[in-house]
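Following up on my earlier thread - several people asked me to post the actual chain instead of describing it. Fair enough. Here it is, all 231 residues.
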Amino acid sequence: MKANPDIAGTGVIIGFMLSAYLTLILVILHYIFNPQCCKNFIDHGFVSLIKPKVWKKMSSTNAETWAQAIRDSLLMLSDTQLITGTAIMLCGYSQLATGLDAYHWEVVVCLAWFSSLTHLATLSSLRDHFRDRPFMALCRAGLMGVVLIPLTVSFGSTGYIFQNDNGSWPAKCLFSSASMSHVHNKSGLDDGIQKSSYNTPLVVLSVIYFVLSYLTCVVSIFKPTARFARK
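Reply from S.P.:
Thanks for posting it. Predicted structure:
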């Protein structure tokens, strides 16, 4: 298997993971410093559980200062997650025709999935902010919709299960049943594509989960749709 540092390099993986976890930490802090973001008993219970007592005694001025700083940082990292997720998907699709192997394609899909879900978490956390800025919300919803299509298509190619294979064959074979049958035979696996070699429930549930998460966030960041959903 040929190394591909643009996709699976140590720096790339570390960069994705650090930015995603930093974003997650800021999402949690945003809920802590912005109690109005808590819309249900689960949010309130979670925040009351993790919020230190010393922060409860913080003055409203200091709390608002921290809230503004966290919100601005979260907006920046939200855009970063959207851009990096889009970039890694474009990188993966652009290399399919030039022989990108199945292993690195799986890495592309996983990183894009991770980045996109992290971005959706920021949209949910910042929904009140976006409701007052419909153009900003529309831009993010539109860009996320652009990512949604290729990412959803890519899910269908990740359902194949290989127990004794390192994925060194071309990833474009994942998009063709005839090619996958040839890969099976060449790898000494099943004779043709058997039902057990494709995890249909995983693919279907992944697509449903991602699409519903996207739609839920889109509904929540616009005032008219959010008001209609509460009825």
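The chain has one domain: 5-159+199-229. That should answer part of your original question.
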